[in-house]
Amino acid sequence: MKVMNLLLFFFIFAFCVSSGCINQNLIEETPHPVITNVDVMSTPDGEEFELKVTAYMMNPLDTDTGSLSIKVKSKDPSTNLITAEHEESVGYLKAQEQSYKTISLNVPKSGEQLVVIELFEDGSLVDDSSTYVHLVSEVTEKVPNVILTDLMIETIQATNYGEDIIFEASPGLYNQGEKADKITVVVTAIVDDYTRYPGSAVAYNLGQNQKTRATVRMTVPADESYSFYVDVIVDGEVTSSAATTSSIKLHDLKLETPTTYTLVAASSPVEEMPTEEEEAVEETTTKDEEESPGFETPVFIVAMLCAMGILKRWKKDC
Fold first, then answer.
1. What is the fold, at CATH topology level, of the domain defined by 140-274?
2. Can you tell me the distance from the alpha carbon of 212 to that of 102, in angstroms, rounded to the nearest whole number?
3. What is the mean pLDDT of residues 145-165?
């Protein structure tokens, strides 16, 4: 009798575990190195295209990583076939360290391509990211066509008894047209519709398919949060305009530590990123939802009650 009861109890318990009723929310992902951002730049190379893929990585752990490597693949979205693939070693990342790796590979086909980036640690896949790129057979512009890639901000020092802060804003520039002899970059730090702090810098002799940065040094009040708007002017014409997607509190940035921010073209819809307070509220809400019991516990209790009822009825019949 006891053996039958034990077997029946074990069967019901195994069924609940296998169906995910127990401990489903207790499964936690093991911390590992992650890919934080990816930049892809394409250049026509004869009948092929050269892709330069830059993967930004971070080690969130308090210990050093193992041996890391990056694999980049391009796929034809219509067939899911791999059109190019390349892998390179990264070495390792120290605890809490950030780094990046640029990999070049040739793609033998124009049109839309899916670029997949995979991060391996000691031969095991730990993270991946993907993005779509559109490859055009040739550059049609006959004039300089300088576009923005990102914005790097570095705080230098506090001044005026801590009331103001000196920082450098360095927009990334890429010339996909003819050589540009002089490029004017205007960076505007924006508090609101009425409070703006502009600054400018000049870059010279940017060749076709070359990249550079123009550095603008500015001094602004330290306690405000800023969004940034960037204009690129070549030969009196604005060739590119872009803005950051969220407000940045310069006072909270670590001194002399460059931080790179994504820019969205002015013609593209900008999705507002949540502020730090909104992120904290959302994280608290998510945490409460995860900790609140769902249907797993009631299902398990009902299953156990059914098992006890079956056992009692079976005992009476015996």
1. Immunoglobulin-like (2.60.40)
2. 16
3. 90
Q: Are 304 and 12 in contact (CB under 8 A)?
A: yes
| Per-residue pLDDT band at 27 (split at 50, 70, 90) | very low
Burial class (CB in 10 A: 0-12, 13-18, 19+), 251: middle
pLDDT band at 2 (very low <50, low <70, confident <90, very high): low
Query: 11-25, 99-113, 114-128, 245-259: lowest mean pLDDT where?
Result: 11-25
Spell out a b/e string for 13-23, using b for 16 or more CB atoms within 10 Å of the CB, else e: beebeeeebee
Tell me the domain boundaries of the chain.
42-138, 140-274
Alpha carbon of 45 to those of 114, 117, 136, 206: distances in Å?
A: 19, 22, 11, 19
Q: Which CATH architecture has domain 42-138?
A: Sandwich (2.60)
Residue 300 confidence (pLDDT): 64
Given a contact cutoff of 8 angstroms between Cβ atoms, the answer to whether 154 and 257 are in contact is: yes
Whether 167 and 218 have beta carbons less than 8 Å apart is answered as yes
